[in-house]
Each structure stands twice: as structure tokens, then as C-alpha cells.
Write a structure and sequence with these properties.
Elements (H helix, E strand, L loop, with lengths): L14 E5 L4 H12 L3 E6 L2 H15 L3 E5 L5 H12 L4 E6 L14 H29 L2 E6 L12 H21 L4 E6 L4 E2 L22 E2 H13 L5 E2 L3 H12 L1 H16 L1
Parallel strand pairs: 1-2, 1-4, 2-3, 4-5, 5-6, 6-9, 7-8
Helix pairs in contact: 1-2, 1-6, 3-4, 4-5, 7-8
């Protein structure tokens, strides 16, 4: 039995909007929220994959699943999702999950690619959260999950814009939680570590040798999402790092210059191979 997310005002589950829902953490959020009875609006670039997922979830859990194809690296795609969010009267959850990574020194990565990342990670998250807060504040209930990363704390060469945008999401979530804490709205910056998804198989990240990362540091997407929703249900800390090993690693990174330098050297070595 999945743990129910209880909002301060009570009531039945409403609608959840999930970006980057076609695979990985987004698809796992969709399944686990459908299991809890939430209606879904699923958005990503790959409409065909969204439709397969939506049909499966609506059939299995008898919930409403809407598909909204949009590219959040473009203003038109962001606006399209914002307009849909603004029309949802029972909006309960927004999961800003869409994202991608690149590999390479900042000066060597085409600036257009870096700006697309800023749009997806930062601009889209800001604008979608703003669109969602109207309905949530009116109902005095709701939750926004911004999917950040442990990379927000482990600043390394070769991931300049990725690290910076994820760090922004952490700071944005913490400040937003302070503003909305008395309004029945919960904010979470989810900071997973190495997770088995398509993320490391796509684009420039495809060169990562997963075997170079200790097996014990990897987590499954379903486990990450389950822990995230459990933490949300308990109204825990705004910044949530799933898994005690990830939390311990993050503490070491944040408090030890020697550990940070070791990670940076290891990253340079992997990039040079």
C-alpha cells in the first residue's frame, strides 16, 4: 500500500503535473502518483512515449491521464504548459523534473546548448511554479517538487552549467518554502545521486562509464521517487537527499575541501579517457 500524501486541508487527491514524464524519474513519479489516485498531466517532448505511459496508467489505476507534448527549452513550450497549469482548478502537485546534462568544459560546449539547459532547469521551473502557485494558494494546499541533484553541492569541472542550475533549484526551493510555509504549500528540492535512468545514456552523458561508479552508490528511480513522496508526506526538510549514503557523501563534499578536490580530479580523469 502506497503512503498517502496528506495536505493540511484534507480532501481527495487532485491533479499532478509532471514534466520530463516520458522516462526515468518522471515516469516513476507518474506511476506512483497515479497509484495514489492523482489525475495526471504528463508533459515531455516525446509524445508517443507519453501516450503509451498515459494509456497504461489510466487503464491500471483508473485515473485521468492527459498528455501534453512540449519542449521546455523553448519559450513556446514553457508557455503552453503554463497555460495548461493555470486552467487546472484542483492542482495539487507540480513536479519540475525535466532536465538533461552535457559533458565538456564550459568554453567548449556551444552556448546555445548551455542556454537550452538554463531554460529547461531554471526558466521552466520558475515559470511553471509561478503558474501553479495561484491555484495552490487559493486552495491553501499543494506541493512543488523541483528535481535538483547532488551535483548542486559537488561542484566539478566539465559540469559548469549543470551544477549551477541545480544549485539554483536548491536555493530557489529553500527560499520559496519560507514564503509559502504558512499557506499549506510544501516545497521540496529533490537531490538524487547516481540513478538508473536514461539520463546517463542520452546525448553527451552517454560517454559516462557506469562501471566507474561504485555499485553501492547507484539507486533505482522507483526508490528515489518513493523516498521523495514519503518525505513530502511527512513534511520534512525542503532539501531532500534520498539514501543515507548520498546524504553522507554530500556532507563530506560540503565540509571537506580534500574530498571536493578528490572528486574534481576524478572527474577530470574520467573526461580525459
Amino acid at each position: 500500500m502506497s503512503q498517502r500524501i496528506v495536505f493540511p486541508t484534507g480532501g481527495n487527491p487532485g491533479t499532478a503535473v509532471i514534466t520530463g514524464a516520458s522516462s526515468g524519474l518522471g515516469a516513476s513519479f507518474a506511476r506512483q502518483l497515479a497509484e495514489r489516485g492523482f489525475g495526471l498531466v504528463l508533459t515531455a517532448r516525446r509524445e508517443d512515449r507519453l501516450r503509451v505511459l498515459a494509456e497504461k496508467l489510466s487503464s491500471e489505476f483508473r485515473v485521468r491521464c492527459e498528455v501534453l507534448a512540449a519542449d521546455l527549452s523553448e519559450d513556446a513550450g514553457i508557455l503552453r504548459v503554463c497555460e495548461r497549469i493555470g486552467a487546472i482548478g484542483d492542482l495539487d502537485i507540480l513536479v519540475n523534473n525535466a532536465g538533461f546534462g552535457t559533458a565538456g568544459n564550459y568554453a567548449d560546449v556551444p552556448i546555445g546548448q548551455s542556454m537550452r539547459m538554463v531554460n529547461v532547469h531554471v526558466a521552466a521551473s520558475l515559470r511553471l511554479a509561478h503558474a501553479a502557485l495561484g491555484a495552490m494558494r487559493a486552495r491553501k494546499r499543494g506541493a512543488i517538487i523541483n528535481v535538483a541533484s547532488m551535483a548542486a553541492f559537488a561542484i566539478t569541472p566539465g559540469d559548469v552549467v549543470y551544477d549551477a542550475t541545480k544549485a539554483f533549484l536548491v536555493a530557489f526551493s529553500e527560499a520559496l518554502a519560507l514564503e509559502t510555509g504558512g499557506e499549506g504549500i510544501r516545497i521540496q528540492a529533490l537531490c538524487p545521486g547516481f540513478t538508473h535512468t536514461e539520463f546517463h545514456d542520452a546525448g553527451k552523458m552517454a560517454g559516462l562509464d557506469a562501471a566507474s561508479i561504485p555499485r553501492t552508490l547507484w539507486m533505482e528511480a522507483d526508490r528515489v521517487v518513493s523516498l521523495s513522496l514519503q518525505a513530502l508526506g511527512r513534511k520534512g526538510r525542503t532539501v531532500f537527499i534520498p539514501g543515507w549514503k548520498n546524504r553522507a557523501s554530500t556532507w563530506l563534499v560540503r565540509h571537506s575541501g580534500a574530498v571536493r578536490r578528490m572528486l574534481q580530479r576524478a572527474k577530470r580523469k574520467r573526461d580525459a579517457q
